[in-house]
Amino acid sequence: MGLFGGQMANVVEWQEYRDDIIFWKWKNDEIKKGSRLVIRPGQDAIFMYNGKVEGVFRDEGSFDIESDIIPFLSTLKGFKFGFNSGIRAEVLFINTKEFTVKWGTKNAVNLPAPGLPGGLPLRAFGTFACRVFDHMALIDRVAGVRERYTVDDVKERVLAGLDPLLMKWISREGKDLFNLQANASEIGRGICTDLDMEMRRLGIAVTGFSIQSVSYPEEVQKMITKAASQSMVGDLGRYQQMAMTDAMAGGGAGGRMAVDMAGMQMGMMMGRQMADQMSRTGSMEQPAGPETGMSGGRKPNFCPNCGTKANGANFCPNCGQKL
Q: Would you call 238 helix, strand, or coil by DSSP?
């Protein structure tokens, strides 16, 4: 801050710069003759006299207030510094960069859900981006009564109205409450539009809003995990095939073992298929005058269990299956 006394000229600048401050007000008794205004990159300077905006300066650099600034002020164009007098003015420094702010719901938001009278409680986290949009609105609604305005002040204002917006945009058009991440971009754009309209009244533009994660109560999360597991088990055959393919692709001892197991399983499946096929073929090739047993039934030519030719026997000569 520029501190001065007596006839000493002062430097009007924002020295104690912080990334989280949106504006900071330089306020002193007088701006003396010979004083300079310093505007750094990413700053604007607004001169105020008797509570009225006199001029907005956006170019960075060091300027002589008497020769470079006063001629552009609204009501002070003809002001002349006296030996013992100066300007009793205020200078408001604006941080013009875009801010990225983390947000998170303070309490769980209860969303209307079928079968849940109290709604489905969930929490959400993410970031939003904002910047100063309208200097005059910021001064009229905020800066006139404050020495500084920080990112935390904007965050507090955003969080105050965030829960209804989450409910509005998540519930809109029947969003899947258990798969909200799939619609996170669309929900974020809707919330950003509504927040921007609200915050522009304060001179702040909300330029982006993102939902990075959504968390459910522990009991609900367990149910979601269980449902996903059951879905995987429902297609167990495909799961086994994929696991076997991954193991074979990995090579090594485990890969060779997987290949052997796959070969055994395929051999067994082929054996069963051949036996079934031979059984059906033998049944179709039975002569018109079938050989009958004690029960009067028709004997197959091949064992239905292992596929061995029966040769008219009552029991399979290979596996002992009754024919």
A: helix
- Yes or no: say if 187 and 180 are a contact pair by the CB < 8 Å rule: yes
As a whole number of angstroms, the longest Cα–Cα distance in the chain is 138
What are the distances in angstroms from CA 263 to CA 80, 248, 250, 258?
100, 12, 17, 9
Instruction: Please state, in angstroms and rounded to a whole number, the distance separating the CA atoms of residues 301 and 286.
Output: 8
Smallest CA-to-CA distance from 7 within 67, 86, 65 is with: 86
Residue carrying structure tokens 């709604």: 119
CB half-sphere exposure, 102, CA atoms < 13 A: 3
Mean confidence (pLDDT) of the chain: 78
Q: Is residue 24 within a helix (H) or strand (E), and if so which, with residue range?
A: strand 21-27
- Coil vs helix vs strand at 269: helix
Confidence of residue 228 (pLDDT cuts 50, 70, 90): low
pLDDT tens digits, residue range 277-304?
666 655 555 554 444 444 455 777 778 8
Pair type for strands 90-95 and 204-215 = unpaired
How distant is the alpha carbon of residue 314 from its chain centre? 72
C-beta atoms surrounding 209 within 10 Å = 24
pLDDT score of 146: 83
Q: What is the spatial distance between Cα 314 and Cα 323, in angstroms, rounded to a whole number?
A: 5
- The whole-angstrom separation of Cα 47 and Cα 85 is 18
Instruction: Show the 3-state SS of 58-82.
Output: CCCEEEEHHHHHHHHCCCCCCCCCC
Please give the single-letter amino acid code of residue 48.
M
* Band of pLDDT at residue 306, cut at 50, 70 and 90: confident
Q: What is the pLDDT of residues 119-128, one digit of tens each?
A: 788 889 999 9
pTM to 2 decimal places: 0.63
DSSP state of 212: E
